[in-house]
Amino acid sequence: MATALPTCPYLPAPRPGLDWRALHAFRTTDRGADFYFACLEYGQVVWQRGFAGRALLCLDRAFGADLRGDEPLLQAHPLPYAALAWIVREAPGGIFIGNPRVHFQHYADRMNEPRREQRRWRAWACWALVRVTRPDLPADPRHVVVEPTPEEIAAALDVHGLRGETTLWREAMGVLQPRAAAESAQGHAAKIHSSGP
Q1: Which residue from 46, 76, 80, 194 lies 20 to 30 Å from 70 (Cα-Cα)?
Q2: DSSP characters for 119-165?
Q3: b vs e for 135-158, b when ≥16 Cβ sit within 10 Å of the residue's Cβ?
Q4: How far apart are CA 159 and CA 121, in angstroms?
Q5: Is 31 in contact with 66 (CB distance < 8 Å)?
Q6: Do the Cβ atoms of 23 and 54 come closer than 8 Å?
Q7: Is pLDDT above 60 for 190?
Q8: 3-class DSSP assignment, residue 4
Q9: Averaged over 166-173, what is the pLDDT?
C-alpha cells in the first residue's frame, strides 16, 4: 500500500479528483503549456500518494513539453529542476524511486527528436542534480558514456534552453543539500533544541 507523503513545495496544488486521464488527454494533441502544467499537477498527485518514481516520470515529461519560454504560466511554475531535486532528496526509504541517476544518464545518451539537444541537455542537468542530492546512487558501469561537467551542462543550457533556464538549474544545484547533509543538519538542530538554552 502506498504511503501518503507531504506536499512538494515546488509543485502546484492539483485540481480535486485529478488522475491519469489528465495526461492521457494529451496523447494525440499539442504538448505545450497545458500539457506542461498537467504534468506538474499530476506529479504532485502521485508524489503525495507515495509513488515517487512515477512523480519523477511526470517531471521528466514536463521537461519535454514544447514551450517557447514566454508562457505566463512559467512565471509561477518554472521548469521543475528544484522539484525534481527535492523529490529525489525527500523520498523516504522504502518508497520506490528506482535509480534516477541511471535513468537520466541513459535518457541523455539516447535522446531522439523532437528538440533533441534541448531535451538531452535537460536530462544531463537532471542527472547532475541527482548526483548532488543523492551521491549514494551508483552509475551504470555497463553504460559507457562521457559524463559532462557542470560547466558544460550550463553552457549547453545557455544555447539550447529557455531564457533563464541555466539560472534555475544553478539555483537548484546550489540550494539543495544532499540528503545525508540535510539529515545531519536536521539532527544537529534537533539536538540543539532539545538541549535547551
Answers
A1: 46
A2: HHHHHHHHHHHHHHH-TTS---TTS---PPPHHHHHHHHHHHS-TTH
A3: eebeeeeeeeeeebeeeebbebbe
A4: 10
A5: yes
A6: no
A7: no
A8: coil
A9: 95
The upper half-sphere exposure of residue 125, i.e. CA atoms within 13 Å in the direction of its Cβ, equals 32
Per-residue pLDDT for 17 more than 90?
A: no
Contact 181, 189 (CB under 8 A): no
What distance in Å separates the CA atoms of residue 83 and residue 175, rounded to the nearest whole number?
A: 12
Number of Cβ within 10 Å of residue 32's Cβ equals: 15
Helix, strand, or coil here: 110?
coil
The candidate with the shortest Cα–Cα distance to 157, out of 40, 83, 69, 57, is 69
Report the pLDDT averaged over residues 27-40: 86
To which residue does cell 494525440 refer? 28
47 Cβ neighbours under 8 A, 6+ residues apart = 5, 8, 11, 55, 87
Q: What is the mean pLDDT of the chain?
A: 86
The structural domains of the chain, with segments of one domain joined by +, span: 21-177
- pLDDT tens per residue across span 53-86: 999 999 999 999 999 999 999 999 999 999 999 9
Nearest of 62, 69, 30, 38 to residue 158 by alpha carbon: 69
